Amino acid sequence: MPNEMNSASITDGFHLVVDALKLNGIDTIFGVAGIPITDLARLAQAEGLRYIGFRHEQSAGNAAAIAGYLTKKPGICLTVSAPGFLNGMVALANATTNGFPMIQISGSSDRAIVDLQQGDYEELDQMNAAKPYTKASFRVSKHAAISGRPGGVYLDLTSEVLGATLDTNAATRSLVRVVEPAPRQFPDPESIKRAIDLLASAQRPLIILGKGAAYAQADGAIRALVEMTGIPYLPMSMAKGLLPDNHKQSAAAARSLVLAEADVVMLIGARLNWLLAQGKGPRWSPTTQFVQVDISPTEIDSNRAIAAPVVADIGSAMSAFLAVLKPGQIQPKAAWLNAISERKQHNTERMAAHLNASPNPMNFYSSLRSIRDVLAEKPDIYVVNEGANTLDFGRDIIDMRQPRKRLDCGTWGVMGIGMGYAIGAAVVSGKPVVAVEGDSAFGFSGMEIETICRYHLPIVVVVFNNGGIYRGDDLNRSGGSDPSPTVLMKNARYDKLIEAFDGTGYHVTDPRSLTKVLTDSLASRKPALINCIIDPTAGTESGHLQNLNPQSQVGK
Ligand code: ADP
Ligand code: TZD
Ligand code: MG
Question: Which is the closest atom of ligand 1 to the Cα of 236?
Fold first, then answer.
């Protein structure tokens, strides 16, 4: 009989979960307490895990998801039954969609009562409800959130299990292996050779870096490959900073040109989804050929035929490329590089003209110029960014210089990630965060400024207050006195909200004041909120996504 069987002792579900998390190297839990997991949260804290308590489970879940993205270890979100579980599910589903490793652990009612629909307190068949939105959904079990494509995993803890007296041998083995590091997934050497041959034959090659590349933490190897090949690259928004945005090979300022004209495109940790127009016209040429490096074999050919798939983890794939690539083997043609640099110069000059204007009230350009300049000196600060115009202008104007510092609406274009991502990033890194938020976007998680103040986190929230979703000047078409569906309160003083929690609020109307208060707040490392007044007419409907709005065929 194995020794461990002899050392069996008595435990319970509460201790089991905490032990399992600790054994897996988890040091932080994000959650909202209540029946039946209050004592689980208390015990976790007593046992030395950091517990960050939120005002809403969606924000706790978003914090867990971004912690997972930044650390490559699943972020843990703890929720109560039914409504708390469902609040957290938005974040869990968002984590799955974005490929962020996260585990939501939720208390749930007794199975027998749920299954017989006898009407328990907060009754819901949570494990099954979670299935469509997760990589896996289990009742007190095991599974890795990080092997293969990362994503959300749901773990159901019934009250019976939490409270039950258990024998450590009988119950624990399965729980312990929640988050072992994913084994490396090596590429087939033939696939590397095929990809290199295709890239070497290209006239107009392009590399696209996605957030999978940022997540992989293979920063040095990715940069080495880009620089050794000399191929121009385009960073997707959360891959900005993987190479510094001012890198001479960045083609970000010539985006439409390179998408339309590249003949061979190497996708590294980026999907050909809506953010890349599904790889189809008119954005793309029908003859473009693709290399795709991805851990998920089902991603290959999902939207366009992929001539040279490389199915592997990105770190292993990059090492394999660098091991066989000969200097000079891939050399983009001068005509291609010149065309890109001309377009870059043209677009950069056009942008500079906007950035250098000083309209009153401020618009997105002049306010973001201030933020860009303050952050240029501080490359290790995290930038969280959500909204429509606030997001689109923010992505184009704020340069990133370090990997994984830009955290935004991601694959779903979801609003509500702001405060959760900011808190998650501040907690796992100990570094300051600037959250640049549309006024509508901020509202989705705004109450978490109390959480920010309660934990004294170095987060500065900048609210771009244009009085509305997209714009603040829309009219009620009936002529009635209710505001239009997209209009928010005029002259709202978001800065006063944070003062209720002893944080510092600022109200600014010009770029110089914005520069000053942002600099001061970052230096203080204390929670602050800057209410930044933007011209209500400056934005456009849906930011850059106007084309996704269905148009009425029956006239207006
Ligand atoms: P973006 O939105 O930045 O274009 P996506 O989220 O669409 O990026 O794509 C990320 C891709 O990266 C996904 O297809 C995912 O399977 C892949 N991926 C994530 N982590 C790794 C990894 N470590 N190695 C290889 N591929 C990865
Ligand atoms: N709800 C959720 C969860 N996600 C969404 N993306 C939306 C609603 C719809 N939506 C957008 O796509 S952007 C946006 C909403 C409500 C807010 C835009 O207004 P803003 O930004 O104030 O945040 P700008 O700068 O005024 O454009
Ligand atoms: Mg707005």
Answer: 3
Task: State whether residue 157 is helix, strand or coil.
Answer: strand
**pTM, 2 dp:** 0.94
Q: Which atom of ligand 1 is nearest to the CA of 239?
A: 3
Cis ω before 361 (30° cut-off from 0): yes
Q: How far is the CA of 542 from the centre of ligand 2 (A)?
A: 8
Cα–Cα dist 115/107, whole Å: 16
Q: Give, rounded to a whole angstrom, the gap between the first and last alpha carbons of the chain.
A: 79
Q: Which ligand is nearest to the CA of 467?
A: 3
Give the mutation target among 135, 292, 314 for probing the ligand 1 site: most ligand atoms within 8 A of CB.
Answer: 314
Asked if 102 and 65 count as a contact pair (C-beta separation under 8 A), the reply is yes
| Ligand 1 pocket member 99 (CB < 6 A) | yes
Ligand with smallest separation from the Cα of 271? 1
Residue nearest to atom 11 of ligand 1 (CA): 269
Distance of alpha carbon 263 from alpha carbon 418, whole angstroms: 37
Neighbours of ion ligand 3 (CB under 5 A): 438-440, 466
Ligand with minimal distance to 436 CA? 2
Ligand 2 centre from 81 Cα, in Å?
29
Tens digits of pLDDT across the chain (556 residues): 344 444 567 788 888 889 989 988 999 999 999 998 999 999 999 999 999 999 999 999 999 999 999 999 999 999 999 899 999 999 999 999 999 999 999 988 877 777 777 777 877 889 899 999 999 888 764 345 667 788 898 988 887 778 777 655 544 444 545 455 678 999 999 999 999 999 999 999 999 999 999 999 999 999 999 999 999 999 999 999 999 999 999 999 999 999 999 999 999 999 999 999 999 989 999 999 999 999 999 999 999 999 999 999 999 999 999 999 999 999 999 999 999 999 999 999 999 999 999 999 999 999 999 999 999 999 999 999 999 999 999 999 999 999 999 999 999 999 999 999 999 999 999 999 999 999 999 999 999 999 999 999 999 999 999 999 999 999 999 999 999 999 999 899 999 999 999 999 999 999 999 999 999 999 999 999 999 999 999 999 999 898 888 888 886 5
SS (H, E, C) 379-394: CCCEEEEECCHHHHHH
The torsion defined by the Cα of 250, 254, 256 and 258, in degrees rounded to 10, comes to: -60
Ligand 1 centroid distance, CA of 115 (Å): 38
Q: What is the CA radius of gyration of the chain?
A: 25
Q: How far is the CA of 463 from the centre of ligand 3 (A)?
A: 9
**Paired sense of beta strands 165-167 and 10-12, if any:** antiparallel
Residue 212 CB less than 6 A away from ligand 1:
yes
Give the distance (Å) from ligand 2 centre to CA of residue 226.
35
